[in-house]
Amino acid sequence: MGCWFNSHITSIAPQTAHVYDDTTSKIFVPQPDAILKMIDYKFVLDRPLKKGIQVLQVETIGPSMHEVDFFRLHPDITFEDFWEWQHNGRKGPTPATAIGGVLNSHNMKGFVWIKQNYKVGRYVIWCDMPLMMKDSSLSEDVVHADLGMFMQFEIKD
Ligand SMILES: [Cu+2]
């Protein structure tokens, strides 16, 4: 869990929570509406997300550590505008609303669930994890999204 307000996500370390089935209370892990797999270097969504409250199960296939950040694009903003903003030091007005995200915290076996209320609109999911520098020809600023680990989708009425 982390706070996405201002720069809190970088100044306050995100915390990990574990969820287990509890047969005594009859509380069970969430049933997902869709499953998102994080694979080097792409997202694979098993079915489209729908308008309204959706539970997304996020699984890390790896082998690298990944994250998924959710953005709802502002009206009249194109994906290209968003891409430019991400690569231009995130200067100027934000082209999207950050609506949350998930970091696997090096837990390659567990699942993470994110429950969100999806409004009609255009969304981008983005992995901002820095690329580990095995290939010195790549800039230190390269993140997984630069290698294709992003996805656009639209929630329709
Ligand atoms: Cu990634």
Keywords summarizing the entry:
four-stranded mixed sheet; 2 helices; binds copper (II) ion
N-to-C CA distance: 30 Å
Largest sheet composition: 4 strands, mixed
Principal-axes geometry comes out as: globular
Biggest sheet, spatial arrangement of strands? 2-1-3-6
Overall average residue pLDDT: 88
The CATH topology turns out to be Immunoglobulin-like
**Backbone CA Rg:** 16 Å
* Binned strand content: 35-45%
Q: From the helix content, strand content and strand pairing, which structural class follows? A: mainly beta
* Count of all domains: 1
Helix and strand succession? HEEEEHEEEE
Q: Mind telling me which CATH architecture this is?
A: Sandwich
Description of the structure:
With 157 residues, the protein is mainly beta. It has a single domain (8-155), classed as Immunoglobulin-like. The protein is built from 2 helices and 8 strands. Strands 2-1-3-6 form a 4-stranded mixed sheet, with no helix packed on it. A 4-stranded antiparallel sheet has the order 5-4-7-8, with no helix packed on it. A hairpin with a 2-residue loop joins strand 1 (34-39) and strand 2. The longest helix has 8 residues, at 79-86. The protein is globular. The two termini are 30 Å apart. The protein binds copper (II) ion (CU). Residues 41, 66, 127, 129, 144, 149 line the site of copper (II) ion. The site of copper (II) ion has 6 residues, from loops.
